[in-house]
Amino acid sequence: MTCGGSEVRILYRPPVLLALTTLVRYNFGVTITTITMTTLTIRIEDELKLKAAKQADKLGVSLTLIVKNALRNFVEAPKIVIGEPETVIVTPDIQVKMDKIGELLSKK
Question: Fewer Cβ in 10 A, N or C end of the chain?
């Protein structure tokens, strides 16, 4: 085709190619991240593993998820609780002592 003595070429771009061209042209910030994983091997009693797996199965989650969650909790709040936590009954005299401690700490 000619226009004013110059040759004009009309190129047909399929819609997919046009969409890809637009994506590349405007760069919507597509980011690909990779997560590296490692393997942790621990030695525990067979009975403990079976009981833990059974409990995890009852909840519909994997044992891996339970262990990962425990490790994340430890990293976020480094504390260890061994056994059942004790229940403390706050009697009126203990409450008075706790209030005094609170007052002392709030003064600093």
Answer: C
